Amino acid sequence: MNSRVLPLMAFVLLVALLVVGLKIADRKTQLPSPLINKPAPAFNLPVLGQAGRTMSRESFLGTPYLVNFWASWCVTCRVEHPVITDLARSGALRVIGFNFRDENADALAWLAQFGNPYEVTLVDLDGRISIDFGVYAAPESFLVDPSGVIVFKQLGAMTHDIIETEILPRIASMESGN
Amino acid sequence: MTVELGQIALLAALLTSFSLGLFPMIGTYTGNRRLMAISTSAALIQCLLLLVAFGILTSAFVNQDFSVEYVARNSNSLLPLHYRYSAVWSAHEGSLLLWELILGLWIAAVALFSKRLPEVFRARVLAVLGWVSAGFLLFILFTSNPFGRLIPSAAEGLDLNPLLQDFGLIVHPPLLYMGYVGFSVAFAFAVAALLGGEISRDWVRWSRPWTLVAWAFLTIGIALGSWWAYYELGWGGWWFWDPVENASFMPWLVGSALIHSQAVTEKRGAFGNWTLLLAISAFSLSLLGTFLVRSGVLTSVHAFASDPTRGIFILIYLALVVGGSLALYAARAPKMIQGGGFAGLSRETLLLINNLVLTVMAAMVLTGTLYPLLIDALGAGKISVGPPYFGFLFSWLLVPMVLALPIGIYSRWQQDSASRLAGRLMWPLLISLVVGAGFWITVPGIGLVAAAGVSGGVWVTAGSLFYVGQHMSKKKHFKIPASILAMTLGHVGLGFFLIGVSLTSATSSEQHLRMEAGDQHVMSGYTFEFNGTRIVQGPNYTADEGEFIVAKNNREITRLYPQKRQYAQRGNSMTEAAIDPGFTRDLYVSLGEPLDDRGQAWAVRIYYKPFIRWIWLGSILMMFGGFLAAGNKRYRRKIRANKTEQTGTKEVTA
């Protein structure tokens, strides 16, 4: 075979990969995260829509909470939004939004349009905290126990099924453990 | 009122770029000299129109025209004047316009400074650049128009992202884009050579100065980005293997391979096809990088489809530009001549090692960046890729390159003898081993890897400097040829960079503290005394400013004033680190959060960063090496008896 064709073939493969990437964007699977059973990464972030106020990891100690990374540019976040809203309304745990790599105005407009399920939304403007959390795809959610340890990670859209089988049992065991 | 004119200017630029791409190209195949001559005027007119469009957007920022959506989103009436200029390229739409403007400037430079190239070849180069420009203008006009109106007009702007309100942002993107976009010239020369088919290796000589200038700009652009991240992000880090950084690093790696393989091809005729491929790849990776970053794809691979129009446009544009040129390569490259053979130990072999390592590095960064997508597509699960992957592979890949580098400088083309090289390199080798061992023994906690890194940096630096010394001792007159000086600057820069990276990563110290006014902390022999904070008022922010008195051996060295800023309009808080820079160490203090209600206790981070300046010092030396090499008189000399002379690029860099 003519070796001069190899670069072109490699490039065709790359384009094919990108096309496939478009198709599978919504198909999410479990990612074994090295953060499971480790303390949540430290953060100290401004609160969306409340000028001057910031909150840190320490602010949330003592109760279980869900960290939900989202952004206005993330289509899948809209898909999971009703599920997150139901979870927040159920009062099972605190739901904290982490808005990353986004524009504040877009984020506020997004919440105004779809409703705001979050107790607070923290602004991770440059995405550094999302890197600490190992987030490479939005949405991602982390269940953190009262001592600040991550016990579960959901890559991709949250579903009612996952809430029933993964989130709620873990919260129940935390409470019985206490 | 006038932004519509900007829109019209962009449309006119699009039409001009079509004529630039179409008519001269037709002329080269029909032998019509008048059609080919269109290329010059079209290139200049296009550049002028882009300047007009860019000027109009800038004036909308300067005059605070919040009826323009892009201005309203990225500016504010309190924004200081100088940031209103740089705010033009602070977000997606304006960035793309800057990219396109710089492409227009490069095209105009090629039109002005390559009049002595063969007529047909020159027309083809400009036509290829015309198509690149047309594709980009279509992208801007259809998916990312910066001139959109906001109806009704906004009363006040949203303000510029505070992270970007900084000197670093003013200069970083234009320089980076000069590099990115500059590779389009080498790309166009390669494609024009492939179209011509009969051109042997002349195109390499003609394209070398352009490539070197682009590479030098990219070098300093990346270095500035790293410096900006260091002082602005408040983390004390200088490189994060962030996808955005990787996107600029890939073209740099391939560009570095390209400037070396061009040397082999020009001098020896070898690596001809490889050089073509690298010239195509460098620009392709620039395009890939620019688009991935600007479309937000890399912030999260799954956000690729977040704006379907942009995502699809990216794929089509990439497929046409890269796929088209690679198809041309596949069809035409075998006809190109190949150089003579060379022995196992020769300069060719050593430069081959350089090229292999740099290419593998680029492939590794590409893989690491696209890995989540790749693994997902293969259905093999999901793995996050981070600094451990990059850092590990990079340090190992550097080993063969660093070892081979000085040998390559001394080696002869075609064939060389090991004993001759060993004799020449004995002293640099000894010095590097002694210095490395010295650091290992005397610096506590440095570790073997970092000591080896220092040793490698010294090996490269000493090898380069000794070469200049030996070269001069053979000459009667005391003058270093510019080409040797350029090469030496570039390699000494790399040596300094390696030394800086090794020492910084191994011997930095940092402390995260809770400090109240009056508290002292001793780190690495320096005493940091916290004097409390006061409120300071900036143009569009208020800040808590801390005062730290830094002393060593009971003598005050400096006072540092880190700030915690609150930007009113966006409600962001920003950490403004205070740094005392030095040739052998930086002292770095950043103010975290207040830890009590009275504002007495603060979270404070202090860093001691030895030799971190050497990282950027090395980069600056590399940049000067690139510019100096590009200015070489050789490229301006007549290369044939007929009218095929290349003009220099000194003018271009101005």
- How many E-type strands of chain B? 10
Question: Main β-sheet of chain B: number of strands, strand sense, barrel status?
Answer: 6 strands, antiparallel
- CATH homology group of chain A: Glutaredoxin
The run of helices and strands of chain B is HHHHHHHHHHHHHHHHEEEEEEEEEEHH
Report the principal-axis shape of chain A.
globular
Q: Please give the oligomerization state of what you see.
A: heterodimer
**Helix segment count of chain A?**
5
Termini separation of chain A (Å)? 68 Å
Write down the domain tally of chain A: 1
What is the architecture of chain A at the second tier of CATH?
Answer: 3-Layer(aba) Sandwich
**What integer value in Å does the Rg of chain A equal?**
18 Å
- The amount of helix of chain A comes to 25-40%
Which key terms come to mind for this protein?
heterodimer; A: 178 residues; alpha/beta; Glutaredoxin; 5 helices; B: 654 residues; alpha+beta; 6-stranded antiparallel sheet; 18 helices; 10 strands
Describe the secondary structure blueprint for this structure.
The complex is a heterodimer of chains A (178) and B (654).
Chain A: H1 6-23, E1 44-46, E2 54-56, E3 65-70, H2 75-90, E4 94-100, H3 104-114, E5 120-124, H4 128-132, E6 140-144, E7 150-155, H5 160-177
Parallel strand pairs in A: 3-4, 4-5
Antiparallel strand pairs in A: 1-2, 3-6, 6-7
Chain B: H1 3-30, H2 33-62, H3 69-74, H4 81-86, H5 92-113, H6 119-143, H7 167-196, H8 202-232, H9 243-268, H10 272-294, H11 308-332, H12 347-377, H13 387-410, H14 418-442, H15 447-474, H16 482-507, E1 509-516, E2 520-523, E3 526-537, E4 541-552, E5 555-560, E6 563-567, E7 572-576, E8 578-580, E9 585-594, E10 601-610, H17 613-630, H18 650-653
Antiparallel strand pairs in B: 1-10, 2-3, 3-4, 4-5, 4-6, 6-7, 8-9, 9-10
Helix pairs in contact in B: 1-2, 1-6, 2-5, 2-6, 5-6, 5-7, 6-7, 6-11, 7-8, 7-10, 8-9, 8-17, 9-10, 9-12, 10-11, 12-13, 13-15, 14-15, 15-16, 16-17
Protein model, in words:
The complex is a heterodimer of chains A (about 180) and B (about 650). Chain A is of the alpha/beta class and about 180 residues long. Chain A has five helices and seven strands, in the order αβββαβαβαββα. Chain A has a single domain, classed as Glutaredoxin (3-Layer(aba) Sandwich). Chain A has a five-stranded mixed beta sheet with strand order 5-4-3-6-7. In chain A, strand 4 (about 95-100), helix 3 (about 105-115) and strand 5 (about 120-125) form a beta-alpha-beta unit. The relative contact order of chain A is 0.20. Chain B has about 650 residues and is an alpha+beta fold. Among the domains of chain B are: about 1-165, no CATH class; about 510-610. Chain B contains 18 helices and ten strands. The longest helix of chain B is centred in the first third of the chain and has 31 residues, at about 200-230. At the A-B interface, helix 1 of A face helix 10, helix 11 and helix 12 of B.
